[in-house]
Amino acid sequence: MFMVPDLEERSEETKNAISQGSLQSSNNNNNGTCKGDGSPAKRRRGRNPIDKEYRRLKRLLRNRVSAQQARERKKVYVNELEARATELQEKNLKLEERISTLINENNMLRKVLMNTRPKADDSEEPNRA
Fold it and tell me: Per the structure, how many domains does the chain have?
């Protein structure tokens, strides 16, 4: 199975760009609304275009992996169906042959039965004597 890379596997360029972009956005959003420790009171998450792009690319990669897995599952499923169809066709042919054999045997037994029955003329003659 394919795995989606974690956020920690970013390249150095992406890390630097994200940190610079988040510093710029935090400085712009600061506007005197800092806590006592110097951190911003509210941080807008996901507003950074670099973060958005990274999340979009990660989502696309997850989707691509998921689609590939779905295609593989479908291929396995179709192969199983085809194998089952072949198996059932072979079984059907064997059953049709068996039916044909039984029909022929039945017809032969009917003919034997008709030949071994006493005829109407034979049964009447001994009664007259």
Answer: 1
